[in-house]
Write a structure and sequence with these properties.
Length: 1013
């Protein structure tokens, strides 16, 4: 049927109908339907769409734009068997009011449920209604409906109306997508997945749960899976939805139509993976809207489900719309140049992200967190950015971009970008103290089809740069943990940023059914402004902290986390160098943790410190340069609330003065120093420590601590003008004794050390007593000669970068009683307190090598000296010498003479120079006659052993005879001496040392054969 006036074009097919005598069409075989099929020209033309975003448009090339026409559409009607028939005229054939629509098997009324074995989409039969209103998408009206149009051409004011037929019926009008055809490869408004899922959602009545037998699984497992998807007995797959048709008009030049639909399958509480294993196809299209005019797309929207990395539901919206764009035509020749501008219409396609779930409460998700949500300091996130600008797709904007490239880009996780920048999503959160804070961060969008790939999502997010995973907080006060009832705001600090990563959920037990992602966000790091660290360093900057493992594992459980530790950060050193620490201590405390009750502290002290940890923690803190302070301390219990750490500075001072009080863990306090007008000019950081000591620590020298006390008070002033910090140190060790090498015990009432800025260290030792014990107990009677305060204000003190030397010497007057005389006797002692490297030591001496004591009894006499050097490492040196003998002289006037005999022993043992032992004998005599002639004779014999260490030693003997003669003005002297050394096996020279290379060559040639003549 062709009518040029109004462009009516219909191809009519009659089935089981014939023209009766009345000129009307009647059913021939009543056992089969009599059907009239009207075929219309293509109702839609697909055009290539071109991408755009906020700043870019892909070029519209090549021209003309690619396009493809849809297949012809058709309307089919059944003729009633007992009716008057259809008049076989143009008007009669166009009167469809009395005809019944003939529809495809799956063009079922709204509300028809899905069933196993239900009608599946298929190519419609040629004698049923099939409308291709969108390229390759076949739709059909459903429910009560009909078609309304004029039978005759309508002309008004000389213009004839284009023939068209309008879909009419109950409100709202409903259509279903009943089938599809394969799409073309160029970019169009609807891609293959869009069309497939629209058919699935509206025209598939067989997309239902398969039976246990069909799936090949036990029925008990099938029941478990189905009840998980439908715990309340509702249908797992709801009836297919219908599309609402605002209007549908068919013409010879194409259709005018506006259809839209929203889809609630799958449900928010249905896991896609659970549906798939029960044999259900799972779509992701959430909404669809399509507007055409005369078969040309005007506006097409496809909305697909997805999620943000925070777990919020979101959707990606694809919009294709017709736009008018200016175009420059070819300029006309001739001066001046002239250009003609016009417009053209083109389909532009772009994408947006919209948020469909603005608020997410993470308290409801605590069961899915490995650490019970302690790793997530935010209770809720309420997104305020609900729609993005046109986003940048991670593909190149060229004319050759393919549908496959676009589909691949939007089927994987996308970092949301627009105008070349990450899009910041603003959101409000409630922290652990109930405080509202505002943050913003970039977001990763995860398509619904990708949500089951939890590992892929976590890898994509956690592998991105920190910039993409960081939420800016703008120095707002934010609690890093849930509120601690005993100390509100104890974990709150001005926060510059939070950096997140994703963690895999531990299981779905206890999780809300409508939370589908397999991941949860957690705070990885936070940039916070810590007043204690800023005051210590004098630098106002954010410190990157992490929630501590102890807090994450145990929270604020007093048994497992007695110190209420909640965060760690990079080490900040507090203390002094070794040279400033002096003989009492060289402290270097590393602050790297935050406690809700103690503030900044070393993390190793948080849970109590055993001996091994104590040694590691206090490495570098020594007494007397070599004794590790950790060896003297009892294990430290964890800090507990209510101790001196919670008190004022006056409470700390009282604890230091109280002999029964202890400050078991270092307490660190920082406070500002106000200047004029109350403005801070400096910060003072104070470290106070008074730990418990072991009664008999297992160290050398042997310490007897008993009720001894050790205290340390360090104050560092950090000026805010950037000048160098100044440190004051006061340390004391009270009531202790130490035994060096088991032979000398030094007892001290108090050893004090004070170091003030710009001054030399001041060390005092009061109540010092020296006692010889062990092998030298016999010398103890000399101890009474040493003054008890000999080291309190010593006559000699020297402070050097290496340490402090303090000592004295005491000379004893000559003692003479009858024939007995004791001369040149002196006692000396020197105490060494090194700063680093060397052990503390004591040297005791009775006279010296240069000034030995002398003892005379009648004609016999002798002398000697004794020195003992001991240190914290043991005996360093022993040196002693004694000499004895007799001397007889005779004077007869004319002649005089004398004879003497002397013998002695010298012994020296040194850890650096080995051992040396020497014994000698010396005798001689002289004779003088009238002073004119004199003769003298001396014989000397010595035998020495020296151990050099490393297995090397030597022994040598030495003897000499000296004869001197003097006659008047003439004198002569003759000395005969002999010496013999025995170096031992380790001292024998090598062959290389005694034989040169030339000598060896001569030796070898002596055995060489002469060449044959």
């Amino acid at each position: 049927m062709i009518r040029p006036e109004d462009l009516l074009v219909l191809d009519i097919t009659l089935t089981n109908l014939a023209v009766g005598d009345d000129g009307a069409l009647h059913v021939v075989d009543r056992a089969a339907p009599g059907r009239v099929v009207f075929r219309l020209p293509p109702q839609h033309i697909a055009e290539a769409a071109f991408l755009e975003d906020e700043t870019r448009n892909s070029p519209v090339e090549p021209l003309p734009v690619r396009s493809a026409a849809a297949a012809p559409s058709r309307l089919a009607f059944d003729v009633p068997e007992d009716g008057p028939g259809v008049p076989f005229t143009v008007a009669g054939l166009l009167d469809w009011a009395a005809l019944r629509p003939a529809l495809a098997p799956n063009a079922l009324p709204p509300g028809t449920p899905t069933t196993t074995g239900g009608v599946r989409p298929a190519e419609p039969a040629p004698d049923v209604t099939a409308l291709e209103l969108a390229y390759r998408l076949i739709v059909s009206p459903v429910g009560e409906h009909g078609w309304q149009h004029r039978s005759d051409p309508h002309t008004a004011d000389g213009v004839t109306e284009l023939w068209h037929t309008r879909l009419v019926g109950t409100d709202p009008l409903s259509v279903r997508a009943i089938s599809r055809r394969e799409t073309n490869p160029f970019v169009t408004s609807l891609n293959q997945d869009d069309i497939t899922e629209l058919v699935m959602l509206t025209g598939d009545f067989g997309n239902a749960v398969k039976s246990a037998a069909d799936l090949g699984i036990p029925r008990i497992l099938w029941l478990l899976w189905t009840r998980r998807l439908s715990p309340w007995g509702r249908a797992i797959v709801p009836p297919p939805a219908t599309l609402t048709a605002r209007h549908v008009l068919l013409t010879a030049l194409g259709a005018h139509h506006h259809v839209l639909g929203k889809f609630d399958f799958p449900g928010d509480d249905q896991q896609p993976a659970d549906l798939v294993r029960l044999g259900v196809d799972v779509p992701s299209v959430q909404a669809y809207e399509h507007i055409t005019g005369l078969g040309r797309d005007q506006y097409v929207k496809v909305v697909r489900r997805g999620f943000l990395d925070t777990g919020h539901r979101a959707s990606i919206v694809k919009i294709t719309e017709r736009k008018f764009e200016p175009v420059s035509l070819d300029p006309e020749p001739g001066p001046p140049p002239v250009a003609v501008f016009g417009t053209r219409t083109v389909l532009r396609q772009y994408f947006r992200i919209i948020v469909t779930q603005p608020v997410l409460d993470y308290r409801l998700l605590a069961a899915g967190y490995p650490k019970g949500r302690r790793e997530m300091p935010l209770r809720t996130i309420e997104l305020r950015t609900l729609e993005t600008p046109k986003i940048d797709l991670p593909i190149s904007f060229t004319a050759e971009v393919t549908q496959e490239a676009i589909d691949r880009a939007v089927s994987n996780p996308i970092w949301v970008r627009a105008s070349g920048q990450l899009v910041p999503f603003d959101f409000d959160s409630i922290d652990g103290e109930g405080r509202r804070v505002s943050l913003r961060k970039p977001m990763l969008f995860i398509p619904y089809s990708y949500v089951g790939n939890t590992d892929g999502v976590i890898t994509t997010f956690n592998g991105a740069s920190a910039t993409r995973r960081t939420a800016a907080a703008g120095a707002q006060r934010l609690a890093l943990t849930e509120a601690l009832p005993a100390k509100p705001d104890a974990t709150t600090a001005p926060t510059e940023y939070l950096t997140f990563d994703l963690v895999k959920i531990t299981g779905r037990s206890g999780l809300p059914r409508d939370y589908l992602p397999g991941w949860l966000p957690q705070a990885l790091t936070a940039g916070v402004r810590l007043q204690s660290v800023e005051q210590l360093t004098g630098t106002p900057r954010a410190v990157e902290v992490r929630l501590s493992t102890t807090y994450l594992d145990h929270g604020f459980d007093p048994a497992a986390n007695p110190a209420s530790l909640f965060a760690t950060y990079p080490e900040v050193g507090f203390g002094v160098g070794a040279a400033s620490g002096g003989g009492v201590a060289s402290p270097a405390v590393k602050l790297d943790a935050l406690s809700a009750t103690q503030g900044a502290m070393p993390s190793k002290m948080a849970g109590g410190v055993d001996a091994a940890t104590l040694k590691s923690l206090l490495a570098g803190m020594k007494l007397f340069g070599t004794v590790d302070l950790s060896d003297l301390l009892a294990p430290m219990p964890p800090p507990v609330p209510g101790g001196p750490a919670d008190g004022s500075d006056a409470d700390l001072d009282a604890a230091l003065a109280d002999p029964t009080a202890l400050i078991r863990t270092p307490v660190i306090r920082t406070r500002p120093v106000p200047g004029p007008g109350g403005v801070p000019i400096a910060n003072v950081t104070r470290l106070v420590w008074k730990p418990a000591l072991l009664a008999t620590p297992p160290v050398k020298p042997v310490f007897a601590l008993g009720s001894a006390q050790f205290l340390l008070d360090v104050r560092t002033v950090t000026r805010l003008d950037g000048s160098s910090p100044e440190t004051t140190i006061a340390g004391e060790l009270r009531g202790f004794s130490l035994t060096l090498a088991g032979v000398v015990r030094v007892s001290m009432g108090t050893m004090k050390f004070v170091s003030l800025p710009g001054r030399k260290p001041d060390v005092t030792a009061e109540g010092v007593e020296l006692e010889f014990v062990g092998a030298l107990a016999f010398v103890d009677t000399i101890r009474r000669l040493l003054p008890a305060d000999g080291f309190s204000d010593p006559p000699a003190i020297a402070v050097t970068p290496e340490g402090i030397q303090a000592g004295f010497s005491l000379g004893i007057p000559t003692v003479g009683v009858g024939v007995f005389s004791l001369q040149n006797l002196s006692l000396s002692a020197a105490l060494s307190l090194p700063f680093v490297g060397k052990p503390a030591g004591l040297r005791f001496a009775l006279s010296s090598r240069e000034h030995p004591f002398l003892v005379t009894v009648t004609l016999f006499g002798g002398g000697g000296f004794f020195a003992l050097g001991v240190s914290a490492a043991g005996v360093e040196e022993i040196e002693a010498s004694i000499e004895f003998g007799g001397n007889i002289s005779l004077n007869l006037g004319v002649a005089s003479g004398g004879v003497y005999v002397m013998a002695g022993v010298y012994f020296k043992m040194s850890t650096s120079k080995g051992t040396e032992l020497t014994g000698y004998f010396r005798c001689g005599g002289y004779l003088s006659v009238l002073g004119l002639i004199s003769v003298s004779l001396e014989f000397y014999l010595a035998f020495t052993y020296r151990g050099k260490g490393d297995g090397r030693n030597e022994i040598w003997g030495q003897a000499s005879l000296t004869v001197s003669v003097k006659v008047l003005c003439f004198s002569a002297s003759v000395k005969l001496s002999v010496e013999k050394r025995f170096a031992g096996p380790a001292g024998d020279p090598t062959l290389e040392q005694v034989l040169s290379a030339d000598d060896w060559q001569t030796y070898c040639l002596a055995y060489a054969q002469e060449a044959a003549a």
